[in-house]
Amino acid sequence: MIPEYEALSYVWGPPEHPKHIYIDGSTIAVTRALAEALPYLRYKEQPRTLWIDAICVNQEDLEERGRQVEKMAALYTCAKRVIVWLGPESTDSDLGLQTMESLSMKISFDIEKDLAYPPIQTGVPWTVQDPIIPYDEQAIKAVISLLKRPWFERLWIVQEIRLANNKAIIQAGHKSILWANFISSSYYLRSKFQGDKGDGILSSEFLKHYLHVQPLGLGKPQVFEDLQRLTWDIRNTKCTDPRDRVYGILSMVHKSSAVELRPDYTKSVGEVYQEVVLHILERSKNLRILARCEMAEDEEKLSRIPSWAPNFAVPSRYQLALRDMSAAGDSLAHARYLGDGVLGVTGVRVTTVASIYSLTSASDSETSAIKLIQHLVAASFEAATKNPASERDEKSILRACCRTFNRNLFLDYWLPPKGRYPTFPEGQKALDNILNWREGESFQGLDQSTQRYIRYFQPLTAGRAFFITDDGNVGLAPVSVRIGDIIVVLIGVDSPMVFRDAGNGVLRVVGEAYLDGFTTGEALLGNLEDGWVRMSRFDEETMAYWVAFLNIVTGEIQIEDPRLGTLPDGWKIQGHKEERLWNWFVREDDQEIEKQSEFERWGSDPRLAPEFLRKRGAPLEEFMLI
């Protein structure tokens, strides 16, 4: 019988100048960081059983290391408690932890709705909308000092704390508080510092370090099935072995998806990263992971990893992902691996990049962002006038720019509203105010809605470039985009992709793009009829937002895309407990329906299969990627 134990989550620290500790009469060398932690963790009057990876796993034996990594999930899930060790106390660490504990007693944070509520027992009327955080600058600085601790940057701590039970604690020196209290307070402070209230050096400093907190969860055991989402969540973390960017998150991936991916440290980094893409393609028939690909700005520095396999070892240049798009609808990828690093994918060639504009000056200041927006709108107008075939008028260009600068993230598209984005009419008014702004006027002189639009423009476009296509459309792409690159919508990929001709009939992946007017299946199905918009509505039972289509004229909401038409012969929609949220498509003669796992039931709409799309007139072609 395994005795009760606590699992330690900590930073190993450099291996130089190790210390020796005594275990069962023998000595063992450990890092100075671990030796420093043990006196704080030792009970004076009774034994304490700790599981510590550096001691319990032979790091030099690659086969044993791989086996132990597979068991990590069970080790942290079964632990009596997980201890997050930040390090010894500092001059303000006690204040930081006390502030977070005190704050957690005053609010209850709902991460799905992004709202804070007062606990019933206190009756303190705190909500996200309250304008002032009732803590002084010293207390907030103490919290920021905690977030700067190296523990928050480690890759492995993501699974260690996500898999912990609700007894997990976070400790600095001798002071500790519940992890659940710490994380809920972190989410609350983030909500206060963003948007209108995100002004000033203090809020910027907090939000910068909050990026490491965001993927750590709400202090309860969590399992995820989206490997692409997890690789994005850990993009800012650090690890010694680049293969751990895959192996370090497998325990959080749905077992139906990860069962064939096993840690194997005898494989090269390139083999591991390529294996991830091919595994996802085989198991779930989607290629959303391609959105994680980012070509280096210097093509001569291209890695040996195929361009269609994300290089997880290179930090992303993006602050925010291009989420909330559905460029290919609910389709499955149509792709094949041809060997020798060549992947054939199917989709529609939409347009070609004609001009590119840097967005780096947007981060200099608010006034720099204003001037940049004015310049980009002027360039869009000029491109339309130079193109005789362009049918874009001033109104359509302004609407396209308004959507692009805010990545089409407007409150109109969530029910109930989520976050603090503007509505589309507010965005249009903000853009009008920006275009009428003149040199010498102050940023503070603009109304709050316009200021918020500008503040969102900065992080939403960070790491990207603005482009205009040969047909006058606009969008956002990786900074490595070049004139002549093509924009493609692939079956089974949520965002449009940028490809570059590599000669001999093959292409390289540059990265994902926002292409205005091609985020909701337009390349495959055509435009939505007037009055229909794609939106996300919140479901109380599942505590999640689900895609639906809203008729803004009649108020009708349906889960079916109104462009799809009738199902092909031999197919039907199978009833299930969540049929109000999504359709489950099955063949009428399928006798194995009830034996399918929940993971296997997430089937694609057969009307988005290549053969049916071609019948609709979609100009599908195969692209060879290297």
Automatic annotation (TrEMBL):
InterPro entries: HET, HetReg/Transcr_Mod. Coiled coil: none annotated. It holds the Pfam family HET. Residues 5-160 form the Heterokaryon incompatibility domain. This is Heterokaryon incompatibility domain-containing protein. It comes from Amorphotheca resinae ATCC 22711.
